[in-house]
## 1
Amino acid sequence: MNQKELKDLIEFLIEKDIAEFELERGDVKVRIKRANAEANPGPEARYVLAAPAQPAAAAVPASPAAPPQSVAALPTAAPAPPAGEQVEESGVHTIRSPIVGTLYEAPSPGAPPFVKVGDTVSVGQVLCIIEAMKLMNEIESDYAGEIVKRYVNNAQPVEYGQPLFAIRPK
Amino acid sequence: MVVVSGTKLAQEIAASRTEVWRLVQRLRRLGVRIAGRPMTGYQIESAPDLLLPEFLRPALKGTIFGEHIHHYFRIGSTNAAAMQAAADGAPNHPSTRKTRTAEDAAPEGSVYVAEEQTAGRGRSGHGWHSARSAGIYCSVILRPRVAPADVLILSLATGLAVRDAVSEVTGMAADLRWPNDLLLGGRKFCGILIEMNAEATRVRHAVVGVGMNVNQESFPPSLEALATSLRMEDANRRCWSRVELAAALLKSLDREYRRLADPAAREEVRRRFEQHSSSAKGRRVHVEEDGGYEGVTDGLDERGFLKVRTDAGVRTVLSGGVREIG
């Protein structure tokens, strides 16, 4: 998780007025606690980023473990949602783009699309490809369920964090 | 070179002389030149320039690519094999057990290299002409511990790595075409395809695939105007060692990859790309994406995307498919 993503996450928590948040994924652990989230309308928040324990044999360019830090000031106004964001229905999960790029609905032009609205998908199933700089990024589903909405058409550009699909868990 | 009798060979590998003869026939089909001398035995005349792990490994000590090299004489696509292995844990490999995780079975730095591809792949369903033992068809598995967006620069860095390797081995200076095609005399001799599997904040694995034309002497008519090889661009039409080129390529890719997480190196990649790409600035191009448009290239932005000046202002090219015009 980089600084930008962390910032986006915090902004999201402020926007939704969530007081406490914890995420553990792989070797990254993030815990965010907002002091006086309800009592204090001025969003004065603190977060602690647990530095992941890097495997000793990491002979590869690991991103340097970010030192724990605290942020004193955060934007007072809730930030505008990312471009293309739509109101999410409750009970529906949104798959977002992890990178900027061009969306492809099929593995090659003319091939049938990976998925379409109404399909039931499983966790890990490829939903689409986002291409940036000739790097093809397979976007997998984080959820099992039915695709109830697709936000972006084939060969359209997408922004970082833009919603791609809505999935209703089964 | 030594002449070894069929009987001795048969004893050493505990097989019949007929089996030895059959194996020799097979090696000959693979390009090994073996003379058969009726009363004395077999003699190897020349070992082929095959991309065997035994040949590559000594040159790759100290890099992440020296440990797990998988060589295929014939495969559909090295990228497909590497992507599959990275996700599933190398189902086609005999050493794989169901209980092993994908990361154990196909660790970072695993190399998939082939003499021939029957379904070589390029961007958006384009094929890659992959004649037997004439080119280098090589894919590697990486598991970068950076955010997906920070992996993009690898696309430019891989092109630079190939350029360095070619320059080191052949002395030829390739021209880069954004984001990572490599050209000599205006024609393409190397293409790169990177495939990635990532969550929102974490990259599970990325596969970097390189297809390089090395010793081809000609191409089918449909590719003649677009494609070239290192041999065809050499004044003396020399045949280059693919082993030497592949090793140089993996070494320079290792170098570029280690610096991926360093923001200063990223800036440097951008600068070097602009320096070695004649088309990065001031060239009239057609851009395929977003319905197609034309403009003049204007260098790279801070993320490494190509900028194109159009009548309606500067636009950013996200994917690939940039073609020079008139």
## 2
Amino acid sequence: MPGTVRLPGELGIDAARFVVVENAPLQAVQRRYALATIVIPFLGTLAAFALAAYRPVGAVDLGLLAALYVLTSVGITVGFHRHFAHRTFQAWPALRAALAILGSMAAQGHLIYWVATHRRHHQFAERELDPHSPTRREGTPLGRWRGFWHAHVGWMLHSRMTNTAKFASDLIRDPLIARMSELYAVWVFLGLALPAAVGGALTASWGGALSGLLWGGLVRMFLVHHMMWTSGSTAHMFGTRPFATEDDSANNFILALPNLGEGWHNNHHAFPYSARFSLRWWQIDMGGWAIGAFETLGWAWDVRAPSPEAVESRRKAAGTGAPAAPGADS
Amino acid sequence: MDHAVTAVDIRQWLAAYLSSLLEIPECDVDTSMPFEQFGLDSAAAVAMTGDLAKRLGVELDPDLAIRHRTIDAVSVHLAERMRDRVP
């Protein structure tokens, strides 16, 4: 029937097949890049500590580390995650481009691939097609810890590739975003060259350039990687669960500080459309504050958040799965 | 397929494939529109080419749908190639 949507079965294709890509050569290339992405910042971090024995770590190095840590983390949580993956707010093209570049500088993969994989995670959380669930190794010896490792980094080397057309065709059709995503390698290079150039210029030395590259580039990448990857691992294993969700997502106050609000992961899975991951005054969510600042400046609008009634109606009573009386705390 | 594969066969299969993948009615699949305007990036185009190769039982260049950017272009190119091979 020309007027109807064709089902994968009619084409002799398994429905789950469109979620992931079955293409061995493509998968092999992707896993090589993933391995480099995991290992190079780790080696760079070791090198930075080794170099520190010969050349004291300076204020310039730590300044570059802090500045790029915050900027690229904003790129990931505010840009990749809250704006591009969940469309929790609208923004001017210049801000969208800046967030796409900063997030790409964190070296967590092409924007479009990142978004597609994350949307797949929400659709299949803790189930067979979840790209990174810590429950994946249950029933094997040390399954809990192997599951942790799988959800943290192992999935990038073992999970099947996400089909970008299935999950992110809206972004692929957006010329600005498609271009930003294609230029991924340029942005990763910029994330290394920029701290090297600034470190070299401010100290007027090659040693300063190397040190800037290591601390502002690779150490920063290593830290942002592992702080953000806790969203897949730690935040699906440990913490509090004020909301009943169909997955194991949990809130962690301690994690929410370094990952700019991502630690409020149970809140996020309960209200994925919300730009703010904090649902209590004491829940520190620096990514949400950044969106508030963009809104005040007029750079962002249509910032979505659940109503207090919606939040209360989803909240569990302590120790049960039942909704609590309004006003009860978690 | 039990008869010589024609451009029409390939065009119909690719249109059905995109209808199914993107959950859009088959009549909305414009066979002269570049794949990226449907929301297929290069990785998705390579994956689609792999599925087509499996369906046709032939080897295809992974970047076929990147060099020939529309359903029409892929169908015509492939049908010519297959006709040349099978007299």
## 3
Amino acid sequence: MSSQDAQSLSPAAVPIRLTINGTERRLQVEPWTTLLDLLREQEGLTGSKKGCDHGQCGACTVLIDGKRANSCLVLAVVKDGAEITTIEGLGQPGNLHPMQEAFIEHDAFQCGYCTPGQICSAVALVQEGRAHTREEIREYMSGNICRCGAYTNIVDAIEDVLGQSSTLREAAE
Amino acid sequence: MYPTTYHRPSSLAEASRLFAEAGDAAYISGGHTLLPAMKTRLAAPENLIDLRHVPELRGIEVTSENVSIGAGTTHHAVSQSGAIRQAIPTLAAMAGTIGDAAVRTLGTIGGSVANNDPAADYPAAVLALSGTIITDRRTIPADAFFRGLYETALEEGEIVTRLSFRLPEAAGYAKFRNPASRYPMAGVFIARHRGGEVRVAVTGAGNDGVFRVPEMEAALARDFSAGALKGITVSPAAMLSDIHGTAAYRANLVGVMARRAMENLGSAVAID
């Protein structure tokens, strides 16, 4: 699945180890390669999108050691040893993550380009546990821009999953 | 991005030595300012020196007098630190309003202060809290550190290691964000210190970076209330003017945000 084979890398490439969606990968990366480019070009994981490539749109959002980050603004070499989760690692057709199901249920996208980033960000938002109201969801999702303007349905989807997780927490207590 | 060589020092001395030997080098921590600059080729360092594995830049220490934050501490970590939230709640709250959640995961306090972006939040906090910038070479008081747009007292190769703040009696921060970029168009940090000194620092609005407002400080030292700010204005001549807002608009925002900061002491208010 690699569109850029090892031979095309420059001699400056350095070895790193990443756990990507649960699989340990030993990789050679050029130091100026962003995590986003590594995922898309070397690893064939094209779910994470390159929107602005400047950390402003959030389409490239992934989870690094469980925390959301703009993968376009991280050099892969800097994250040697980290665990990376992309949209492909959250769920797959037939085995979707609850957030993916909620986005479908609430029609929380139009063109879908920002959606992988929105969903990774939303999964982190639920885990962080700081957003409780619609206003807080909007604030904590502010790094993910949707140019189709599906925000209302995105908030609906996240609110739905937040409700499920708080119901689960109450049931556990 | 142009090719670059990556270095990962494990001590402050090694980082400093690598920089001196490299000839053309840049330090990288969160990378949230440097990487966009490298992508647009405004910066093309031949060597990148990663400060994230330097132990001297880590850790948060809080005493009854002082908060000391390692320069490599992320905005997320500052915002979530129980010790900082208790000691200087406004500082933790302010860190929680920087950029967005993804930016806060990686951006660091040392990077923000060293970069001195005229619209960054931290310079206002450091100046109002009468902070101290500790480097691998010396200790610099905030009043001598910030020197205009992206300019600081840092010398070539000098590394910010810690930020130190004395505990204020009271503090508040309010900013008006550009709704698209979320950078403050005016952010006002106010702190009252022991002995009665009040410091008011403004970011995002000035045409020469972060600045203090002596008239507001004097008025608040006499009467530490939002009402004491009535009638005090800043001159539009010293304000930024761009497509997002005129100098007069920003000058007005400074007054409004100062009042909002006073009305919300102990927290940070972000309006857009």
